[in-house]
Design goal:
Layout (H helix, E strand, L loop, with lengths): L1 H17 L2 H14 L3 H21 L10 E2 L8 E3 H17 L4 H17 L10 E2 L2 E2 L2 E3 L14 E2 H17 L5 H15 L16 E3 L3 E2 L11 H7 L11 H8 L6 E4 L2 E4 L9 H5 L8 H6 L3 H18 L16 E2 L25 E2 L1 E3 L2 E3 L6 H5 L6 H15 L4 E2 L2 E2 L3 E2 L13 E3 L3 E3 L3 E2 H16 L1 H7 L2 H9 L5 H5 L8
Antiparallel strand pairs: 1-20, 2-5, 3-4, 6-7, 7-8, 9-10, 11-12, 13-14, 15-16, 17-19, 18-19
Helix pairs in contact: 1-2, 3-4, 3-15, 4-5, 4-6, 4-15, 5-7, 6-7, 8-17
């Protein structure tokens, strides 16, 4: 009877707090971590530290470059990802707060990165680092110039955005009144002010994905709900009038949102197939209790939307419509990641031709309304980086993956990028990773943009550190307000000092 009364009181509290979604999310998040056992906290601490060490150990400390993937096995793999650098700059500060890195070292590394990007060659030359304030998706780890060994490396609007988020985070975190931290703040501000978001529209209110000096714009406009959610917030935040986009861009972007709204696997939300669409912007911005016009009309916020997306992915795995091996309530997660399919050599028979269900290499896997790419490959980041949204279902998953697959999936820098229990073919050579007979394919690489959300969202779950820091940034606040967001911390927060 006492237990039954306790359950009734608990659900009464949920109903009470649900009237204020921000209070509900904040209370349940705090309560979830506080209720963990000592062993569970130690497990999360180890996972977060291992993932942080990916950025600490693999960076080129001289110029701030961080690899797209690791290990690097040859000269054609020696390139950085500007998006990974944004996550890594944020990870450095997490390391400071957790005692894994001295603040002086984090300052030195961050300053080296910002100095490099501030002074890196910008122009329409094919071997520049960037153009019009944007940067190429992949840069040479040593020189920091456009990586030319891989074809069609584009100036990337969205990947530049993740780099900017890391720099703006640094601007707000390094707040001491000394020469080095003042310089970090100034450099971050200068670099952000130079990004010509309006140019990347090419006269259309919507922002495009890529540009190359060889072919100009790709005319692949970001519209509707996707990872570009975070890109548009920054484009609306620009303090440089000639480079900022206006309300027509905001209107055109949001008018496509309704196409993604609907029910999937028992959840009604803005759908996005790959889980990273729901994670990247949330890694830096706390959307609990703040709403734009679209979400005010739906009666929820983007945090609740992301919760529903994670729960829908889990339910998809439970239903497992394609009947892949090991999918369950505790083994799930679809997002952009590596896969088991290898590159076929010239003249080699196609051993995949007779497969009733296709396998892929790197691709944006996911499931949702009007989106379905699922080949049995599970990416740990898809679920683990959702821990701040749905800790009650992610915590058992972390334990289940580690206990079921052991050292095949959990190694030096935390979880490997991906694994596929259904791919047990020993007569095929995967592009990366290994095939363990009767157990499946396990990657042996890590990808920076999959590692990043893990370490940032683990820390947000534990302390809200990244979110609290970014609430102080004047550019982030301006972007959110220009995008029509109101409520909660956004109405209360005051910007931190910005060097002029």
């Amino acid at each position: 009877m006492i237990r039954a009364l306790g359950i009734k009181l608990f659900f009464a509290l949920i109903v009470f707090l649900a009237a204020d979604s921000a209070a509900f999310a904040r209370t349940t998040l705090t309560a979830s971590y506080a209720a963990l056992s000592k062993e569970q906290r130690a497990s999360l601490d180890e996972l977060e530290q291992r993932t942080f060490e990916y950025f600490r150990d693999t960076a080129n400390v001289a110029n701030g470059q961080m690899p797209d993937h690791f290990p690097i096995v040859g000269p054609n793999d020696n390139f950085s990802s500007v998006a990974a650098i944004g996550f890594g700059l944020t990870a450095y500060a997490i390391g400071v707060e957790r005692g894994w890195m001295k603040r002086d070292e984090a300052v030195t590394r961050t300053l080296a990165a910002l100095k490099f990007f501030h002074d890196a060659p910008q122009g329409d030359q094919p071997d520049a680092s960037g153009y019009r304030g944007f940067f190429y998706h992949f840069l040479d780890m040593n020189t920091g110039r456009r990586f030319k060994s891989a074809p069609n490396i584009e100036l990337s609007s969205v990947d530049t955005s993740w780099l900017m988020y890391g720099m703006l985070f640094a601007q707000s975190y390094y707040d001491k009144n000394n020469k080095e931290e003042k310089e970090i703040r100034q450099l971050a501000d200068d670099i952000f002010r130079r990004v010509d978001w309006k140019w990347f529209t090419d006269g259309n209110p919507l922002i495009q994905a890529g540009w190359t000096p060889e072919h100009s714009f790709d005319y692949n406009y970001y519209r509707g709900y996707s990872e570009a959610f975070g890109l548009y917030i920054l484009a609306l935040a620009s303090p440089t009038p000639a480079f900022a986009v206006g309300q027509e861009t905001r209107r055109r972007w949001t008018e496509f949102l309704e196409r993604s709204w609907g029910e999937f696997q028992g959840q009604t939300f803005l759908n996005g197939g790959p889980m990273f669409w729901h994670q990247y912007t949330h890694s830096w911005i706390d959307f609990r209790g703040i709403q734009d016009e679209y979400m005010r009309g739906k009666g929820i916020d983007y945090f609740i939307n992301a919760q529903r997306a994670a729960l829908a992915q889990r339910e998809y795995a439970i239903h497992n419509p394609l009947q892949w091996k090991d999918y369950s309530a505790d083994i799930w997660g679809l997002t952009a990641c590596n896969g088991p399919r290898g590159n076929q050599k010239p003249g080699e028979p196609d051993r995949y031709a007779k497969d009733p269900k296709p396998f892929y290499g790197y691709i944006a896997r996911g499931a949702g309304l009007r989106y379905a790419i699922d080949d049995g490959t599970i990416a740990p980041t898809a679920a683990v980086a959702s821990i701040a949204f749905t800790p009650e279902v992610v915590l058992p998953l972390i334990d289940a993956m580690k206990s079921r697959y052991g050292a095949d999936v959990y190694t030096q820098y935390g979880f490997v990028d991906a694994f596929n229990p259904s791919f047990t073919f020993t007569d095929r050579t995967p592009r990366t990773g290994k095939v363990v007979p009767e157990k499946g394919w396990f990657d042996n690489t890590y990808i920076g943009i999959d590692q990043g959300p893990i370490v940032l969202m683990l820390e947000n779950y534990r302390s809200e550190f990244v979110w609290k820091t970014m609430r102080k940034n004047p550019h982030i606040r301006a972007g959110l307000k220009n995008a029509g967001f109101t409520g909660g911390w956004l109405d209360d927060a005051k910007p931190s000092r910005t060097e002029k």
